[in-house]
Design a protein that fits this description.
The protein has a single domain (4-214), classed as TIM Barrel, CATH 3.20.20.70. The protein contains 11 helices and 8 strands. It has helices at residues 18-25, 37-42, 48-58, 73-84, 105-113, 126-136, 148-153, 158-169, 186-193, 203-206, 216-234; strands at residues 10-14, 30-34, 64-67, 90-95, 118-123, 142-146, 175-179, 198-201. The chain has an 8-stranded parallel β-barrel with strand order 1-2-3-4-5-6-7-8, surrounded by 6 helices. Helix 4 (73-84) runs parallel beside helix 5 and helix 6 packs parallel to helix 8 (158-169). The radius of gyration is 23 Å and the shape is globular.
């Protein structure tokens, strides 16, 4: 296993809790940030612009992806232009389709030609990777986010698919493939093994970075101690049985 400092895949923190984002910002291993309306809603964010302004004031020098929240493409487009104006380190997340399964192709192309740095998101198939790579064409830079974790949720191993996605995108060196929605820390190493450019991860996963290469015997003992301490704190007890007669032995 490589040391975390040796990995070529960049790690982006995925979340919407400002304190948690700033905690990760202090970690030099974290090279960027992503969020989305679902994470923002879970975090209780009710002022999209106010939240984004605070984030960009505190994190001015690493890429941050904010997502549009419209479903109609004309609305999506003006939201993207507005979001892109918030800072030079902003990328705008555009879903690969809207909720009616209509392709975002034309919107993506117009925004790309307008110079908006895009993060096309919610992809799950190689055909989508081919299409979106073509849509983005010769833009200066952009991201394509494949939700490898959701692929894994269906019982499929996403690693071969992500490896092929890397090959598909190899003719577009300005684009970066994002391994999105990982389910465990090990996925960071999976992403690196296939040459994926970026992986996003939530704070609960990133807080496990300190476990890399941890001695497993020591980890075993810590686990035993945890179970013991939790049982003690819960106050569990069992009544000792009376002596059993020989026939029950």
């Amino acid at each position: 296993m490589k040391r975390i400092e040796e990995l070529k895949t960049k790690i982006f923190a995925d979340g919407a809790d400002l304190a948690g984002m700033l905690e990760m910002y202090r970690n030099p291993l974290i090279k960027g940030f992503t969020t989305n309306p679902t994470l923002m809603r879970k975090a209780g964010i009710d002022d999209y612009f106010g939240f984004a302004k605070k984030v960009l004031q505190e994190i001015p020098d690493r890429p941050v992806s904010f997502e549009v929240f419209a479903d109609e493409f004309d609305e999506m487009e003006w939201q993207a232009l507005e979001i892109a104006s918030w800072g030079p380190n902003v990328a705008v997340k555009i879903p690969v389709t809207n909720t009616h399964r209509m392709s975002a192709r034309d919107t993506v192309r117009r925004l790309a030609h307008a110079g908006v740095r895009l993060n096309v998101t919610a992809l799950l198939t190689l055909q989508q990777v081919r299409e979106v790579s073509n849509w983005l064409g010769e833009v200066r830079a952009g991201y394509i986010s494949v939700f490898a974790g959701r692929i894994a949720d269906t019982g499929r191993d996403p690693t071969p698919l992500m490896a092929e996605a890397v090959q598909i995108m190899s003719q577009y060196p300005q684009l970066e493939l994002v391994w999105a929605s990982p389910r465990e820390l090990l996925n960071i190493f999976h992403a690196d093994s296939v040459g994926c450019h970026v992986i996003t991860a939530t704070n609960d996963i990133l807080k496990k970075l300190g476990l890399i290469d941890k001695d497993l015997e020591e980890y075993s003992l810590e686990t035993v101690k945890m179970f013991y301490e939790d049982g003690k704190k819960a106050g569990y007890s069992l009544q000792k049985p009376v002596a059993r007669c020989a026939s029950y032995r």
